[in-house]
Design goal:
- The chain is an alpha+beta fold.
- It has three helices and 22 strands.
- Among the domains are: 102 residues, no CATH class; 82 residues; 61 residues, no CATH class; 44 residues, no CATH class.
- The strands form six sheets. Strands 1, 2, 3, 4, 5 and 6 form a six-stranded antiparallel sheet that branches.
């Protein structure tokens, strides 16, 4: 029987319900009385719900399910609350009841978890500091809110007054932005200022170097408008600096001359390991690490059964752009240039998201990294396509006129004169269970043509196309293909063309010509067709030639295997047929040639 454990886990669960009665929980408990449940802030009594779970050795349950007497809609919260009582005691001079001790330790550990949960939600003060008067704290908070409201009112009045002086409609004047830079919802105005907080001066190198040193020791800093010159190198500028318009300039050796170059408006230099690390495998403990040397990281959560919509089969696929946390609408309107009419030379490119990565160290440097995790198969599903999925990249590209070019991705690898390795795309597959339930399968690359009709004029020209110089077109030598040895699989009557050609300037697959020579697997055998003529058919242990047979048999040939026949052109006037019988004796007959 499985034993109960008390792992480091949340001791509560929250749900956004829509007419839902059954709620799964995963945290450990000992009996139903340990559970408390609330719906939309109102706590239920013990008689309003039931609990079901598997009782384990160790005196409790490793989760289970809570069922409400009445289905709920809204915020449902379930948490564990074990009362601090001692439920058992042991008679003196008896054997130690190991099971009871184990259950008692489990209960004590669970109670410690709940104490830690509640203490973590309380206000904290430093060691040795006085506990603040909560009434004073609340009064100070209310005063700060009132001051902020007054400041916003004054700002609006100033904007309106300025608009009136300029004889403008005040409703068309945009108020100064409070949210700036890369901080999302945080205001840069509340951040220490390079001038006001640390004494930087535009035009004073010494003041700027001293101010940057103070900012580096303190934390993120706002750089006001202007260029702040220094006499330090870019790799000596350490810290996190935000700005809308200000920049710091650092030294760089260009051609032996030391000149100043501006750093980016938002600049960060990480020069030491983080002081602590989060747990990257959990959503709640991910951010527990030290992020002080990084730009403002983001966390975006989506919950609620209706938040992303509920499309039907007719809708096919639904993406709510409003639910994409980092979304850009890049409109290239009337800009851009194409110089040629028959090639892609001399053209511009607009880029919605750009990165330059420069690896002058060791190990890997990755421009984009994604990690995904998916769980929660749909109840009753019979095909893997009906279950949740996770993907690294997704998108769609749609044409709006004839002749345009749709391209889902393009990379350029340049050896730049060095002997290096280059692989266009690597996909590492780690399949751990190969049952194939719900029609599940694995493949490295799947290309799907969904046009109208397999043999209509809407079919694609090729699934794979290579152009340029290569030693091998398709190398499957190092693969392992199981007992079937199926390195390549073709359907009956599908062909491999042997004399195809392409004379187009762009080497486009729609210009490939087959030229009438192929090998195919037919229902009656393997056929070799040359110039449209069936030249050879291999079937049922025999070969049938559809063309004259020419061969050079040799002047002295002896069959090596029993049952083998050999032909020998002994001389200009003698042709010999030899056969090795089942007894191993070679017998022959000579034919005289006239």
């Amino acid at each position: 029987m499985a034993r109960l454990i008390i792992p480091d886990e949340p001791t509560f669960a929250t749900f956004t319900a829509t007419e839902q009665a059954v709620f799964p929980i995963s945290f450990a408990l000992f009996d139903k009385a340990n559970l408390r449940v609330s719906v939309n802030g109102l706590e239920l009594s013990q008689s309003d719900f039931t609990f079901a779970g598997a009782l384990l050795t160790g005196g409790g349950y490793q989760g289970g399910s809570v069922t409400l007497n009445n289905a709920a809609t809204g915020d449902v919260r379930i948490w564990r609350d074990i009362r601090p009582v001692r439920a058992t005691n042991y008679a003196p001079a008896n054997n130690v009841p190991v099971g009871s001790v184990d259950a008692a330790l489990n209960r004590l550990t669970a109670q410690q978890q709940e104490l830690q949960r509640d203490v973590a939600r309380s206000l904290k003060v430093g060691f040795g500091d006085d506990v603040p008067d909560m009434a004073e704290v609340l009064d100070a908070s209310a005063a700060a809110v009132a001051a902020a409201s007054e400041a916003e009112t004054a700002r609006d009045e100033a904007v309106a007054a300025t608009a009136n002086k300029l004889d403008l409609d005040a409703s068309n004047v945009e108020a100064p932005a409070v949210v700036r830079g890369n901080l999302g919802v945080a205001s840069l105005s509340s951040m220490p200022n390079l001038i006001d907080s640390y004494g930087a001066v535009v035009g004073s190198v010494a003041a700027n170097v001293a101010a940057i040193a103070l900012a580096t020791a303190t934390g993120p800093c706002f750089v006001p408008p202007g260029v702040f010159e220094t006499d330090i190198y870019s790799n000596e500028l350490v810290g996190v600096f935000y700005s809308d318009a200000g920049q710091i300039s650092t030294l760089s050796a260009d051609g032996g001359d030391f000149v100043l170059h501006k750093r980016a408006h938002n600049f960060a230099h990480m020069d030491r390991p983080p002081a602590s690390f989060g747990d990257y495998n959990t959503t709640d403990r991910f951010w527990d690490g030290d992020w002080s040397q990084n730009f403002a990281p983001k966390e975006f959560r989506v919950s609620g059964g209706m938040t992303l919509g509920q499309p039907t089969v007719a809708d096919y696929y639904l993406i709510r752009r409003e639910a994409i946390p980092d979304f850009m609408y890049y409109l290239l309107d009337g800009s851009g240039y194409n110089d040629q009419t028959a090639s892609n030379l001399g053209r511009t490119a607009g880029v919605a998201s750009g990165r330059i990565v420069y690896n002058n160290g060791q190990g890997d440097l990755i421009a984009f990294h994604v990690s995904g995790f998916v769980t929660g198969a749909k109840a009753g599903s019979t095909n893997f396509l009906a279950n949740p999925a996770v993907a690294g990249y997704g998108g769609d590209f749609t044409a709006g006129s004839d002749g345009v070019y749709l391209n889902s991705g393009e990379l350029y690898l340049d050896g730049n004169g060095y002997d290096v390795a280059g692989v266009g795309w690597v996909i590492n597959l780690n399949r751990t269970v190969a049952i194939g339930a719900k029609e599940a399968y694995w493949c490295g690359i799947r290309i799907q043509s969904i046009g109208l009709g397999t043999f209509s004029n809407t079919r694609v020209d090729s699934f794979f196309s290579g152009a340029g110089s290569a030693r091998i077109g398709l190398d499957l030598v190092t693969g392992s293909y199981g007992s079937d040895r199926a390195a390549i699989a073709l359907e009956e009557t599908d062909r491999i063309y042997l004399r195809a050609s392409n004379a187009s300037s762009g080497l486009s697959p729609n210009s490939t010509v087959f030229n009438g020579t192929w090998i195919s697997g037919e229902s009656y055998g393997i056929a070799l067709v040359h110039d449209g003529i069936a030249s050879l058919l291999l079937s049922s242990g025999q070969a049938t030639f559809g063309v004259p047979l020419y061969y050079s048999p040799g002047a002295s040939v002896t069959p090596a295997v029993n049952g083998q026949v050999a032909h020998q052109l002994t001389s200009n006037t003698s042709f010999t047929i030899k056969a090795k019988g089942s007894d191993g004796v070679v017998r022959s007959v000579d034919l005289t040639l006239a």
